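Before relying on records like the one below, remember that each one covers exactly one chain. Contacts with other chains, cofactors or solvent are not represented anywhere in the record.
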Amino acid sequence: MSSSDSTTRSHATGPSIVPAKLQEVLPQKVEEKVPNSIHDTGSLSQTTNNAGVSHATGESKVPKAAQEVVPRQVEEVLPEGVHPTK
C-alpha cells in the first residue's frame, strides 16, 4: 500500500463533518469520493451518482447528513461494522 492510500490519517485539506476516527481508517480513494462540502480533500474527481439518500441497511456510525450526500459507491466500500449496506 502506498503512503497515499494510508488509512492511519485523514486526507482532508479543509473542513469535514466525517468523524476523525472514521477519517483515519478510510483509504484516500474513498475520502476523495466524498463531496468536498462534507469532507474537503480538494479532489476534483467527485461523483454524485446515487447521492441524496442513505444506502445503509442497519445502524451506521456515519452521520445521517453525510450518508445522504455521498455516492452509493462510497457507502458500499465502508466496513460493514461502520456502515452496513449488505
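Residues 20-25 form the longest helix (6 residues).
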